[in-house]
Amino acid sequence: MGMSITTKRGDAGETDLLFGGRVGKAHPQLQAVGEADELNAVLGLVRVHVQQAELRDIAARAQHDLVGLMGQLSAGPEHAARYAAQGFKGLGAEAVARITEEAAALEASFPEGFHGWSMPGDRGGAGAAWLELARCVCRRAERAVAALPEPNLQAHPQVLPWLNRLSDLLWLAARVEEKHAGSDSL
């Protein structure tokens, strides 16, 4: 039998970090990890509800990136080198470049551009609404990471740009999903 999930170690309001150490469950580092975890869960709902296979693939790649992001943040800046040396996948410049390219490709499918304010759910399609929620959770995760002490940002310089680009990508993905859900105008 493997390790039990119910350890009771967090009953007093603290939790373990990757590579050791304990912090309170309200610690900013855990707040950022928790926001990323919630984003991962919402992206799972996106994958279940979007109609476009391309958007499911984008969400799946973002989920894989988020696992690395959560690991980096859980390790903390003092263990960034150890995290990388042990072969864990973190967020690098290539992940930022990939989602930047994905966003540009989606945006190119709208040569007429965008006009007005988008209202989640207004044009139908549960997938588009879930993408909008994912975008909001992504922005909250971005704010939580931005609030971390400077050593975290220096140790993981690609995390904020990745979250910023992902929120743009999710907004564009919602427009694509709306377009294919039957909306004839933006």
Question: What profile does the largest beta sheet have?
Answer: 2 strands, antiparallel
Average predicted confidence as pLDDT: 86
Secondary structure category: mainly alpha
| Helical amount | 55-70%
Rg, alpha carbons: 18 Å
What is the molecular shape? globular
Number of contiguous helices: 7
Oligomer: single chain
How would you spell out the order of helices and strands? EEHHHHHHH
Strand order in space, largest sheet: 1-2
CATH names the topology as Hypothetical Protein Ta1238, Chain: A
Name the CATH class: Mainly Alpha
β-strand percent reads under 5%
Protein described:
The chain has 186 residues and is mainly α. The protein has helices spanning 28-49, 53-75, 80-85, 93-108, 126-146, 150-155, 159-180; strands at residues 14-16, 22-24. The protein has a single domain (22-109, 122-180), classed as Cobalamin adenosyltransferase-like (Hypothetical Protein Ta1238, Chain: A). α1 (28-49) packs antiparallel against α2 and α5 (126-146) runs antiparallel to α7. It is globular, with a radius of gyration of 18 Å. The model has no long low-confidence stretch (mean pLDDT 86).
